[in-house]
Design a protein that fits this description.
The protein folds into 3 domains: 7-111, DnaJ domain (Helix Hairpins, Orthogonal Bundle); 136-176 and 213-267, HSP40/DNAj peptide-binding domain; 274-367, Sandwich (HSP40/DNAj peptide-binding domain). The chain has 11 helices and 15 strands. The protein has helices spanning 7-11, 19-33, 43-60, 63-72, 74-80, 83-87, 94-97, 102-111, 144-149, 291-296, 355-367, and strands spanning 136-142, 151-162, 177-179, 188-193, 196-201, 210-212, 224-235, 244-247, 261-267, 274-276, 279-290, 298-304, 307-313, 322-325, 341-348. The strands form 6 sheets. A 4-stranded mixed β-sheet has the order 10-11-15-14. Helix 4 (63-72) crosses helix 5. The chain starts with 6 loop residues before the first helix and ends with a helix.
């Protein structure tokens, strides 16, 4: 006989834990052990753990079940409820709504083997299956100059849209659906042994409860068609490689809701300027200066994102010295306040000299007392 673990131990809470503490513990464990969030070798173990913690939460979050469990333990629960009844009316979805996971919880729960219950505990099936649309991703490459000024670009990408010919039903006009023979129209099938029964989404009708007899000729029964979407997107000033922009509602298009498009930006490497990895609002540039200029000092022509400017260096400037040009860098992506440009001085040494030039250098060396 298998020993059942204590529900409080499973969730890692005490018997005096509040409802909020129980919810918080369950939320943390769900996101840690959901099978879709672990590596393939650990999926089976994670699935069992997921079912275990979900059962513990279904009991401890229900005042009546919790009271019965506190008084009689597992025997009290098993004698009063079937496995399906334990999960009935368990308020799973609400604990994820305030953290942004409410809309995906039903998918997470069903894929781990609890497909018979929605996030609010009600049964599914018998009607149109809720649209589940995937967010889309697109990578856009721009120049550093475009990143500095901001740019509007037109992009074209493939996406799925609800078939307008069949209104997303997947069936040909004038035809009707028949009751699914596998689930008898219920949208769910039961599996398990003995009193342990789990309801899962019917694999034949995918929870719809009905079967298409004549597929729509446009979407071939899928209810969705593929098309190319052309969209104009605005890239803000100061964007950087690795940044993502969310374009709401421009992902897959359903009949009742749309998913989002995530635009991933790559800023091309510039031949002259380089962003400072420690502060991406600052840029770096190297400027070659004749050795006579670093000795005597003077004005140096320096490239910036706005064009060339004159910068004065003092006499005796050393090789690899750095100078700062304030507000000549990249704009901050939030405030648009410009960063700085840092100029590194590299010294140009002539490889060939005329006789007169060589004599002048030798005279200079003697004046300096250099051998």
């Amino acid at each position: 006989m298998t020993t059942q673990r204590d529900y409080y131990e499973i969730l890692g809470v005490s018997k005096t834990a509040s409802v909020d503490e129980i919810k918080a513990a369950y939320r943390k464990l769900v996101m840690q052990y959901h099978p879709d969030r672990v590596e393939e070798p650990k999926k089976k173990e994670a699935e069992e753990r997921f079912k275990e913690i979900s059962e513990a939460y279904a009991v401890l979050s229900d005042p009546k079940k919790k009271e019965l469990y506190d008084q009689y333990g597992h025997q009290g629960i098993d004698s009063r409820y079937s496995t399906e009844d334990i999960f009935r009316n368990a308020d799973f979805g609400s604990i994820f709504e305030d953290s942004g996971f409410g809309s995906i919880f039903e998918d997470l729960f069903s894929s781990a083997g609890f497909g018979g219950f929605s996030s609010r505990g009600g049964k599914r099936g018998g009607g149109r299956v809720r649209e589940r649309l995937s967010d889309l991703e697109y990578t856009l490459s721009i120049s550093l100059e475009e990143a500095a000024t901001g740019v509007e670009r037109s992009i074209t990408y493939p996406r799925h849209e609800a078939c307008r010919d069949c209104n997303g039903e997947g069936q040909a006009k004038g035809s009707s659906k028949t009751t699914c023979p596998a689930c008898k129209g219920y949208g769910q099938v039961a599996s398990g042994m003995g009193f342990i029964q789990f309801s899962q989404t019917c694999p034949q009708c995918r929870g719809a409860g009905s079967i298409i007899t004549r597929p729509c000729p446009v979407c071939r029964g899928k209810g969705m068609v593929k098309s190319d979407k052309t969209l104009s997107v605005k890239i803000p000033k100061g964007i950087y490689t690795g940044a993502s922009l969310r374009v709401r509602g421009e992902g897959e298009q359903g009949l009742t809701n749309n998913s989002d498009l995530y635009l991933h930006v790559e800023v091309k490497q510039h031949p002259v300027f380089h962003r400072d990895p420690e502060n991406i609002d600052n840029i770096k540039v190297k400027v070659e200066v004749p050795f006579t200029k670093v000795i005597l000092g003077g004005d140096v022509n320096v490239p910036t994102l706005d064009g060339h400017v004159e910068m004065t260096i003092p006499p005796g400037t050393q090789p690899n010295a750095h100078f700062r040009l304030k507000k000549k860098g990249m704009p901050n992506i939030r405030t648009e306040m410009p960063g700085d440009e840092f100029v590194e001085i590299t010294v140009t040494i002539p490889k060939k000299m005329s006789g007169q030039e060589r004599k002048l250098i030798e005279d200079y060396a003697r004046l300096r007392g250099e051998p």
